[in-house]
Amino acid sequence: MADTEVDLLTIGAGGGAYPAAFRLAKAGARVVMVDPKGVMSGNCLYEGCVPSKAVRETAALYLDQEKFQHLGLPGRICPDYAAVVAHKDAVQNRRYAQHAAELAAVPDLRLIQGVARFIDAHTVQVHGERGDERFHCRHIIIASGSEVFVPPLPGAELALTSHDLYKPDPTLKNLPAHLVIIGGGYIGLETASFFAALGSQVTLLQKGGQVLQGMDPGMVDQLVPLLHPRIHLMMGVEVESLEATAAGKRIVHYRRDGMSAQIHADVVVLAVGRRPVLPEGLDGLGIVVDRHGISVGPDLRTRHPHIYACGDVNGRVPLFHAAVRQSLVAAHNILGGDVPMDYADFVNVPTTIFTLPAAASIGITPARAKAANIELVTGHYAFTEDSRAQILERMDGEIRLFFEPGSLRLVGAWVVGIDAGHLIGEIGMAIQGGLSAYDLARFADQHPMSAEGIGKAARSLF
Q: Which among 46, 71, 299, 438 is placed 20 to 30 Å from 153, CA to CA?
C-alpha cells in the first residue's frame, strides 16, 4: 500500500479539527480530515451544543407563554415533544448542509468517513469509505473528541444518555411524566431544566454535595433556588443499580445516609460525564495521557512537535468554542514551522450552563482565587433593578465582576439570570482586552439591555 503524502491530517472533523484544516487548505496545504461520522462539527452538532440548545430555546418559549398568559394569550399550549424533536432534527440537518457546502468550496480539503490508526509518528492508516488507505503526514492534529461515559452500573443499559436524547432521530420522542437523571454536572442539570420546563417531573440524583462541581459555589448557590419547581435535587446519593418493570418503567436503587431506597421513573438518563476518545495506536508513540486526556500545553503540541491535540481529547477546556480556538492555535503554529507562535488561554474561556435560567462564568472567580491565595475586589449588579429583566419578568440573579485590587483590572466574572450566555462573552472580551473597572464604567452600553449591568457593576466600586 503506497502512502499518500499530506501536509496535515486531522483525526476528527469537529471544532478541534476543521478550523485548522480550512486554514491550512486555504494556505495551499494538502489536508485530509478523518472522522467516523463522515460529517463536520463533531459531537457539538451531532449530540451536544446545537441540538440540546434547540430543545432548550423551545422549552424557554413554553415558559414565557405560561408567564404572559395573563395578558390575554390563548390558554396554555401543551408541549408537543415530538414536534420539539422534529425542530431539533431540522436544525441539525440545516447545519450539516451548510457544512457540506463549506467543505465543497475548498478544493484541497478531503473528508474521509473512517477510523484512523497510528502506524508511527508520521504514518496514519485509515479504514474508511475506499477501504484501507495510508497517509504520510507532515503534521497531525488529534481532535478525536470525547464520548459519553457509562459507568459499570448494573442495569446501565436500561438508561438513556445525552447521545440518545440529542442525536439526529433520537431514541426519546415522547415527553416522560417522570424523568430521573443520574449526575448533576452541566449536562444533567441542563437536561433537567429543559424537561421540567416542558412539563416533566424531574428527580436529579447527585453523588456529591453540590451540583455543578468545579463551578464557583457562589454562582451555584445563586442558580439552584431559581431552577424550576418541578426539579427535585437529591444530594449524597449513591446509585447501586437500575431495574426494568414488566410495564416498561424503570426503578433506580440507591443508598443515601446509609439507607437503601428506590425511586420509580418512566425514563432514566445517565449523565455522569464524558471521556476522551483516544486514537488507535496512540500508546505506541510515547505521548503522555492522563485521566483528562492527551497532555498538552498552551501551544497544543504533544511530545512530537508535529503532532497536536486539540479540543475535548486533551481535556483542558472541553467546550466547542475552546476547541475552535485551540485548532486555530495549532494551525498558526504549523504555519510557523512547528515553532510556537500562538498560545491557547485555558483560563479565560466563557462557560455557560444553559439551564433555565442560565449561569455563566469566566476567568478567576472567588473559589479559584481562594485556592491560589489571590485577592479580589467584587462589583455587583442585581437584575431586580434591570429594565430589560423587568420587561421580561426575569428579575432573578445578578452580575458579579472580579477585579485585581489596586489596578482594578477585570480578571473574572459570573452571571446568573437573564442573558447570561450573551453577557459573559462581552465580559470575556473586556478581560482579554485588559480593561479595568474604570474602562467598563465609562462605556455607554445600550439601554434598555441587560449589558448595561456590566458598567453598573463596575461603578458599584466607586
A: 46
